[in-house]
Amino acid sequence: QKEVEQDPGPLSVPEGAIVSLNCTYSNSAFQYFMWYRQYSRKGPELLMYTYSSGNKEDGRFTAQVDKSSKYISLFIRDSQPSDSATYLCAMIKAAGNKLTFGGGTRVLVKP
Amino acid sequence: GAVVSQHPSRVICKSGTSVKIECRSLDFQATTMFWYRQFPKQSLMLMATSNEGSKATYEQGVEKDKFLINHASLTLSTLTVTSAHPEDSSFYICSARVEANEKLFFGSGTQLSVL
Fold it and tell me: Are the C-beta atoms of B4 and B98 separated by less than 8 Å?
């Protein structure tokens, strides 16, 4: 079983809809949580970064962490075709450790 | 966010030659950088952790002699694919860690094609 599970999708939504993404993890040692967006043949771009349970908002993006349930989410409001990409959750157990990725969810926002 | 520059973005080489990929942190110092490999429609696979001034730490199954990593300064790490073969063709991505907050920023990636 993978330490971090993420539905591969694809997730198809109409323009303007809310995109809802999530990841579950099995090890309670994870402390830092990130969401990346990756376009085809490009490096991942850091979207959100959190280290505590609760919600964090940045523009159209909201990241949610529930450490008791070992569950993190990313919501994208007012989705645009330019949001079509693969979204990767990632987490770190402790300072200095390597990043553990989910498998990525492919999102397609249709005009 | 912080900027990580990776060059070249694309390289085509003949089998048996060596290829060097550079990763630079442009606006911060990075004691630790990471090198990943990514196959189509798959997630990133960590190859090695590069530490400034010391030897890199390789993941299980990654050949140290084939993938040479040098991290000679706080802003530059290089990956050299030695005696490249077609099976080494892949998308290689580097990342650099901001120690103050554990954020990792990625380069734009290098598509290596070995003929």
Answer: no
